[in-house]
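Hello forum,

I keep getting stuck at the same step: I have a sequence, I want structure tokens, and every attempt I make locally crashes halfway through. Rather than fight my setup again tonight, could one of you with a working pipeline run this one for me? It's a single chain of 285 residues.
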Amino acid sequence: MKVITTIKDMQQEMKKEKQLGRSIGFVPTMGYLHEGHATLLGAARTENEVVALSIFVNPTQFGPNEDFDTYPRDFEHDERVAKEANVDYLFYPSVEEMYKPSRSVAITVTDRVDVLCGQKRPGHFDGVATVLTKLFHIVTPDRAYFGKKDAQQVAVVDGLIEDFNFPVELRAVDTVREVDGLAKSSRNVYLTDKEREEAPVLFKSLQSALQLLESGEKHVEIIKQAIRKEIEQYTSGKVDYIEVYTYPELKTIKQAAGKIIIALAVQFSKARLIDNVIVDVQGDN
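Reply #2:
Ran it on my machine without issues. Output:
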């Protein structure tokens, strides 16, 4: 595995791989890698001849009151995970390498961002789109891998690739879950013992919603109310949002039809958990 810290060196290595006709699978991350990231790397390894991983805590996607400075970083751990996943190239640039002191062009995401988590994080997805535009140009991947747990991010990336005509195939990988169904997240460690016992209800409530759909219920408000009732009855968490939208367009609907996302966020004492399911109401997941 090669660890590369400069844009120029990474571009040169990727150019060599392209000249050899090798396919490149790319997993962009902010590091502090966990099993979810390892799953993305495994998918990239299976489907491509070359696997590139980037680790970059991107300052442009953090708001003024968010935790850029305290965001967890552990490069030695990340390097071990990358080697175990048979990564070929680990791109690990500094902020100074990725961003000049001033920029002449800015990217603004105008769609798919004013709902779900993006509603409370103005400018966040502008930063995501900016860094991915740079990384796609640097790495020139054939396929890029993202987790469905961050479904809004996947939707934004889908729009970015389509609008800017990147020759990149977006690969959305299923959410990695604990045995009891809880979506794996670094935030889970902040749950109390009691909250950890309650947390699987989030996914169970989404499964209940799918059962409602299968039974013929198409009214979005009824589906949302059923999810809320289950969460409020069986957990101490406070519902932040429960939403049903078209996917990946993230448009409001009153009746479930076509491909949709059912998404939720619940605030526990020290952890805010998100989860979702994406389903075609005709029966194709």
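The two ends are 36 Å apart (CA to CA). If your local run keeps crashing, start a new thread with the error log.
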